[in-house]
Amino acid sequence: MKMKSMIGLSMTGLVAVALLASCGAKKKESASTTKLPDPTYKVDKSKPAWQSDKSKDNTLTWYINAEWWNKKYGTDLITKQVKKDLNLDIKFVVGDDTKLNTYFASGDIPDIVTVLDPNTEVARTANKWALPLQDLANKYDPYFYDVAREDTLNWYKLSDGKTYGYPNYSNTEADFKSGKVPAKDAFVIRQDVLDAIGPQDFKTPQGFISGMKVIKDKFPDLVPFGFNDFSGGTSSLGDIVQDMLGVPVTNTDNTYYDRNLDEDYITWLKAFRQVHADGNISDDSFSDNNDAFKEKMTSGKYATMMVAANVNQGNSLQTWLSANPNKEYIAIDGIQSTKGKTPTLSQAGLSGWMINYISQKTKNPAKAIQVFEYLLSDYGQILTNFGIEGDTFNYIDGNKEAVSWTDAAAKIQSDDLTKWQKDYRIGEFIQFGHDRFKAYNKASYVKAVWQQQAWGQKYLTPQFKMENISPEPGTQEARALSAITTKWQTTLVSLIRAKDTAEFDKTLATFEQFQKDNKIKEINVTRDKNIKQNMKKLEEK
């Protein structure tokens, strides 16, 4: 699936090898035979277990496979309250794939494990090392079923019918329809540029080419068209443009559709080639890293942009807006289908982003499932997103789904971002986060993205059936797909920089042959099988 566009760490083959080795060689118990100790409190399905559990001196180790995660606990407003409510100390440990591999090789797995990729062997074989959430909920905290999403639990069920992992930002179809899930991608233009150039047709390829020339004439110091950096893959000129064009994700028979070769998309890539040939796409855009891209956005260097994950660019967009209130970047209709298709913008789907597991090695399974239930509950979500009522936020007119910052909190957020992050940590404790709670407070997002989010909301379209359809890591098909993906990333740049249409066509033909040579038919057989399995899951909900 298309995850939230933050720092993502995918597992390597080493993790898969270590996991299989440790599970096989040490003959660890399967989850179905793991003996769970009895709870020390009265279990009540109508009441969160943490409210009944009065045990003291509880400690859990929580590993997160992301080195950037803030390991501090109990020093800020949010985690102080978590510690107090749960009577729990959490020792956060962070690392990369190498560290995760070490854990599985030794068999000494932390109490809770958070990974960032549902396609890995770690996730696919969670029944060999993690505990089923249903077993834990039934024994220790049945209130878990009141706060967990049934669609999400079903989505993560393994072949034994049980669920071992629960993600953050798992959006259901109801979430997409609710209007509370924000759009994150848009074609944007500086307001002052739009005012100066007059009516332009950025929706059609020829109009786009012409519009960029007009911008260059009136604003020679600006880069007419910018886009997300290529350091993470195909930039916003890949699947984001495809979503903007409404390119299908499957054929009519629900088999895999190669969006990169879609006729509509190719037409637009040829338009981008012409824009580059006209000098209206900077060559720096292909070599800039994310920091350079954000720096240019902060200084308003781009006249227009195809922006992916605008929330991740929020600080840059807001810095520009704050210094230039009449020059903000706004979303407009642009880069649209030549076939009359409606945009089908994506967001996080059922797979979410971070996936959280409770290991079979945990010495306190009751407290571990309480953590899951607590953070998934409305109470936990309000705490992690907004802090404490009366201190950092208030409900608006008694509406439990509408909040505003207190004056004191708003001032700190505005004037001292370092203090806001260090002392409050609001909106950062995200392992079980969800967009629908952020919607309670418009100010959860910087003002600079509000209009962009509103513009795209009507185009949000679930793509659940396409989630996690790639071949299993470590297989020959997975290696071939990796080679194809890497080839496409370089091909896309070459297509846009081609000196003429003949070179463009030759470059594209070379890529098509590369796909054939790397067994794309066999890869698509696997994709088709996984699409069908996904559709079956969706029908069973």
Characterization of the model:
This protein has helices at about 15-25, 75-85, 95-105, 120-125, 135-140, 145, 150-155, 175-180, 190-195, 205-220, 240-245, 265-275, 290-300, 315-325, 365-375, 380-385, 405-415, 415-425, 435-440, 450-455, 475-495, 500-515, 520-540; strands at about 60-65, 90-95, 110-115, 165, 185-190, 225, 300-305, 330, 355-360, 395, 400-405. By secondary structure, the chain is an alpha/beta fold. The radius of gyration is 24 Å and the shape is globular.
What keyword list fits this structure?
globular, 10% strand, 5-stranded mixed beta sheet, alpha/beta, 11 strands, 541 residues, 4-stranded mixed beta sheet, disordered N terminus, 43% helix
Strand count, sense and barrel status of the largest sheet are: 5 strands, mixed
Q: Summarize the amount of helix as a percent range.
A: 40-55%
Low-confidence stretches: 1-31
First CA to last CA: what distance?
19 Å
Q: Estimate what percentage of residues fall within beta strands.
A: 5-15%
The count of helical stretches stands at 23
Estimated radius of gyration: 24 Å
Assign an overall shape: globular
What would you call the structural class? alpha/beta
Instruction: Name the strands of the widest sheet in spatial order.
Output: 2-1-3-9-4
Q: Average pLDDT value? A: 91
What's the total number of strands?
11
